[in-house]
Design a protein that fits this description.
Elements lengths: L1 E2 L6 H7 L6 H10 L1 H4 L4 H17 L3 H17 L4 E2 L2 E2 H15 L3 H14 L4 H14 L2 H27 L5 H49 L1
Parallel strand pairs: 1-2
Antiparallel strand pairs: 2-3
Length: 222
C-alpha cells in the first residue's frame, strides 16, 4: 500500500513547495510546525515526517534520525504503508539506519540491520555491499593491527634501502638478511590479513546472501 498525497491543509501545501533536497529547510520547517503537523491527517503527517527523517539523515543528525526512523518504520508496518511518493519507506529508512549506526560506531547493531536488508532483497547489490562494510568494521581488532604493522614494515624497509643505497655501493650479507627478513614479515602479515578478511568478512557476507537467495527461491516455488 502507498500513500496518495493530498493538499488539504495549508501546512501540507507549504511543505510541498519546499525542494526536498533542501534538507536544512525541511528540518527547520518540521521543527517549527511540529505541533501543527502532529494534528494533521495521518497521510499528510506520514509524508512530512518521512521527509523530515530523510533530512535528518542527510544533515548527519543521526541520533535524531534513528528516533524518528524507528517511529516511522513502526507506523508503516502497523498501517501497511510501503510507499511514499514511490519510495519504499521500510527499506529506505532501514538502509539509512545501518549507515547511521556505522557512523555512530554501533557496528553490531548496524550488522544486525544489514543482515535483514540482504535477507529481504538479496538481489540488491547495494545491500550486499553495505553488509560487507558492516562485517569489515566488526572484524577483530588484530586484523587491522596486522595490516598497520605490515604497512609500517614496508615503510621501514623502504627507508632502510634508501639509506643503505646512499651510503654503500656494496652491501654485507647482514644487510641482505635484514632486508629479506623485513620482506618476509611483510608478506606474512599481508597473507594473514587476506585470510582473516576472507574468514571474517567475505565468507560471512556470501553465506548470508546465498541463504537469502535460497529462501527467496523456495518461497517462489511454494
Amino acid at each position: 500500500m502507498s500513500i496518495k498525497f493530498s493538499k488539504e491543509s495549508r501546512i501540507f501545501r507549504d511543505f510541498r513547495c519546499i525542494p526536498y533536497a533542501d534538507y536544512h529547510y525541511l528540518v527547520r520547517f518540521y521543527e517549527q510546525y511540529f505541533a501543527d503537523i502532529d494534528h494533521l491527517s495521518f497521510d499528510e503527517s506520514m509524508i512530512i515526517t518521512y521527509y523530515y527523517a530523510v533530512a535528518l539523515y542527510e544533515t548527519e543528525a543521526y541520533y535524531s534520525f534513528l528516533t524518528v526512523a524507528d517511529d516511522m518504520i513502526e507506523k508503516s508496518i502497523i498501517n501497511s504503508i510501503q510507499y511514499i511518493d514511490g519510495q519504499d519507506v521500510y527499506m529506505n529508512l532501514l538502509y539509512k539506519k545501518v549507515v547511521a549506526q556505522l557512523q555512530l560506531n554501533k557496528q553490531r547493531k548496524a550488522l544486525h540491520l544489514a543482515k535483514q536488508l540482504v535477507r529481504i532483497a538479496p538481489q540488491d547489490e547495494q545491500y550486499t555491499h553495505l553488509l560487507y562494510h558492516c562485517y569489515r568494521d566488526c572484524r577483530p581488532a588484530f586484523v587491522r593491527k596486522t595490516l598497520l604493522i605490515s604497512a609500517a614494515i614496508v615503510l621501514i624497509d623502504a627507508i632502510f634501502m634508501v639509506v643503505m643505497t646512499s651510503l654503500y655501493t656494496q652491501w654485507s650479507s647482514a644487510v641482505y638478511l635484514l632486508h629479506y627478513l623485513l620482506m618476509l614479515s611483510t608478506l606474512g602479515g599481508l597473507m594473514a590479513s587476506a585470510v582473516h578478511q576472507l574468514k571474517y568478512v567475505m565468507l560471512p557476507t556470501r553465506q548470508i546472501k546465498e541463504v537469502a537467495q535460497l529462501d527467496k527461491r523456495s518461497k517462489k516455488v511454494y
